Structure formats: structure tokens, C-alpha cells
Amino acid sequence: MTLKQYLAERIAMIDRALDAWVPAETVEPETIHRAMRYSLFVGGKRIRPILCMAAADVVRADTPGIAEAAVTLEMIHTYSLIHDDLPALDNDDLRRGQPTNHKVFGEAMAILAGDSLLTLAFQVLGSLRQVDATIRSALVVELAAASGTVRGMIGGQVLDIEGEGQTPTAELLEKIHRAKTGALLRASVRMGAIYAGASPADLASLSEYGEHAGLAFQIIDDILDIEQSSEALGKTAGKDLHQQKVTFPAVYGLAESRRMAEEERQKAHAALVRFGDRGTRLLEIADLIVDRKS
User: Fold this and answer.
1) pLDDT in tens, the chain (294 residues)
2) Where do the domains of the chain lie?
3) Distance separating alpha carbons of residues 80 and 131, to the nearest angstrom
4) What are the helix (H) ranges across 148-236?
5) Phi and psi angles of residue 14, each rounded to the nearest 5 degrees, phi first
6) Which among 20, 26, 154, 202 would be 20 to 30 A from 41, CA to CA?
7) CA–CA separation, 102 and 97 (whole Å)
8) CA nearest neighbour of 69 among 24, 27, 7, 13
9) What per-residue confidence (pLDDT) applies to 3?
């Protein structure tokens, strides 16, 4: 199976699980469910749940129910995008090539749609049937920590907002992006490994892979914000520069940022050596992260 076929198959599984868990647009109150589903199904690469599923496959070939665990990452990610786009934060009108949630449903409903996806993610984890309570608990803790304030996504968002207009430094940049983007990507890999019952050694190696793949993802995101058009990105290009964000190109320049992304790719590859052929999909996904154009 080619990588393209693999990704298409996994995306179909993820979308089916999302469709099963998120209430239909006809379920009362209809507006909130339309808003939730609008942002979930408007597009997206599904990188986080795919990483979760691929990591589980590295540990154990057969992991029934992994798609249900994986979709919680997409719920958290989508909630963060809905809130990021709000006027009080990044104030953006475009996401995944479509009007942002608050432009379609209003600010109040967008806030509630994000809140609802956050809440639903933990309902799903608590309801997993294929794993025991110890693993369910570990998954809840992992996702909550990665989404939270201490070296987690929300903490990174706070630093990102407070960093606007400041002199960009390497120290501040690392703090922002290891938390804002890196934490959830790393958790994606770890959650797949935890679900599949990884040994401490396997979990450590996969965590290292997630750390480097996550940093590479953010470096490339920062580069693409400069180099690509809004049409290509599906979101407003040039926002980082306009809002004086602390980014990799702002600190290191484009050429050095590209070199750093390549270095993170190689480190991600190295973390998978112990797995041999079992790590092939994760290797390919690391390459996809670095080579992507949107």
C-alpha cells in the first residue's frame, strides 16, 4: 500500500469515527452541532489522529478501536483552531479554505463549539471499550496535559499572544512552539503507543520521534506562512509577520529554518531505528511533514 493509499484509508476511518461520535446536525440544539461538524468536516490533514494510529501499529499490528482514541486528538485540535481564529485571539477569517467558524455561526456559538469538542474528547476517551481502565486513565491524563497550561497547548498559546511585538529570541521561540504545537503532536504518538501497550523503551523512542516530528511541523508551518499564498494554505498567509509573531524565520531566517527542519526530520528517523520496518509509516509521515507545501 502506498503512503497516499494508507493516508486515505486512515482518514476514512477517522471520519467515520468522528461522524459516529459527534451528534448529527438534526439533534437538538441543532445550531451547536452544525457548528461543531462544520469545523470538523470542512477539511484538514488529520495528521494527529493518523500519527496516533501509526504509532499504535508500530507497537502492535492489531489494535481494535484505535480510531476512537485517535479522533479525540482531532477534536482537541479543531477546538483550538476555532478559538485561535476568534477576534480576541488571531482574528482570522479563513480556515481550511473556508470562512472561520465565528464568521459563519457568530462568536458566541464558535466559543461553545470549541468548548463542546473539548468536552466530547474526554467523553470519548472515558468510553473506550477495547482497553482497560488503567489505559483509559493514562490516555485522559496524556491528552489533558498536552492540551493544558504547563508546557501544553494552552500554555503555548498564552506565550504566543504575550510574545507578539517582543524581540524574537531563540529561548522564547522554543518555549512557545514546544508547547503550542509540539505538545499535541508528541501526545498523538504517545497516545497510540499507550493504547497499544508499549513497553517503556518503545514509548521512550516513540516520544522522541514525536518531539522531533512536532518541532519539524511547526518550523515548516512558519516557513509556509511566508512562502505560500492564502489559497495554497487554506488560511490567511502572512499573518505571523503582520502580528509580529515569534517564529522560526523571525529568529533564524528562512535558510536556517529549512536546515533545522531537515535536522529534526533526521532525528525523527533516528528515533525509529529500533523498530526496523515497523517504523516505515512513521518515517514516511515525518517526510510528509517536512516536504509539504500547505
Assistant:
1) 899 999 999 999 999 999 999 999 999 999 999 999 999 999 889 999 999 999 999 999 889 999 999 999 999 999 999 999 999 998 999 998 899 999 999 999 999 999 999 999 999 999 999 999 999 999 999 999 999 999 999 999 999 999 888 888 989 898 888 888 899 999 999 999 999 999 999 999 999 999 999 999 999 999 998 887 766 566 666 666 667 788 999 999 999 999 999 999 999 999 999 999 999 999 999 999 999 988
2) 3-291
3) 27
4) 153-163, 170-180, 182-195, 200-227, 230-233
5) -65, -45
6) 154
7) 14
8) 13
9) 95
Using alpha carbons, select from 56, 48, 105, 54 the residue that is nearest to residue 82.
105
Nearest CA-CA partner of 72 in 110, 115, 125: 125
For the beta carbon of residue 127, count every other beta carbon within 10 angstroms.
10
* 3-state SS assignment for residue 53: helix
Q: Is 26 helix (H, G, I), strand (E, B) or coil?
A: coil
In three-state form (DSSP H/G/I as H, E/B as E, the rest C), the secondary structure along 148-159 is CCCCCHHHHHHH
**CB-based contact 77:18 (threshold 8 Å):** no
Identify the CATH number of the domain defined by range 3-291: 1.10.600.10
* Residues with Cβ within 8 Å of residue 4, at least 6 apart in sequence: none
- CA-CA-CA-CA torsion sign (79, 285, 236, 38): negative
AA letter at 154: I
Which ranges in 106-164 belong to alpha helices (H)?
107-126, 133-147, 153-163
What's the whole-model pTM score?
A: 0.94
How many residues in total does the chain contain?
294
Which cell numbers in the block locate residue 201?
A: 523503551
Question: Of 229, 218, 219, which Cα lies nearest the Cα of 182?
Answer: 218
Cα distance between residue 205 and residue 111, in whole Å:
37
Secondary structure (3-state) at 95: strand
